[in-house]
């Protein structure tokens, strides 16, 4: 099912695209949608400071783009939510990964040919 054009401009997505740090966190989660990450792992993969995660965490949870996973430990883990907007972000991430992969192949071939 494709989202309507109104869905693409809905507040949750607008509130993500205006903050590069939110995009980094969601990109990490979208790359491994079946995995959960501790705050430390998420910050490490996103390349941000822990305070950046803390500043955006509650908004991402409230926007229902990220959900908390209770692991039985003292700290929760986080994963990509299963809402329509979160799935749209995951599809966008997958599409971008495909485009990047296609772009790398000709470049790699050219570099290999040049070096021989």
From TrEMBL:
It comes from the Archaea. InterPro entries: WH-like_DNA-bd_sf (IPR036388), WH_DNA-bd_sf (IPR036390). SUPFAM superfamilies: Winged helix' DNA-binding domain (SSF46785). This is Uncharacterized protein. It comes from Haladaptatus paucihalophilus DX253. The lineage of its organism: Archaea, Methanobacteriati, Methanobacteriota, Stenosarchaea group, Halobacteria.
């Amino acid at each position: 099912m494709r989202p309507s054009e109104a869905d693409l401009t809905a507040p949750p997505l607008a509130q993500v695209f205006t903050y590069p740090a939110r995009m980094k966190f969601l990109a990490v989660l979208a790359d491994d949608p079946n995995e959960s990450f501790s705050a430390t792992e998420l910050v490490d993969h996103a390349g941000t400071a822990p305070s950046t995660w803390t500043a955006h965490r509650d908004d991402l949870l409230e926007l229902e783009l990220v959900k908390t996973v209770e692991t039985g430990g003292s700290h929760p883990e986080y994963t990509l939510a299963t809402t329509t907007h979160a799935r749209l972000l995951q599809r966008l991430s997958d599409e971008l990964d495909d485009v990047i992969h296609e772009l790398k192949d000709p470049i790699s071939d050219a570099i290999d040919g040049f070096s021989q």
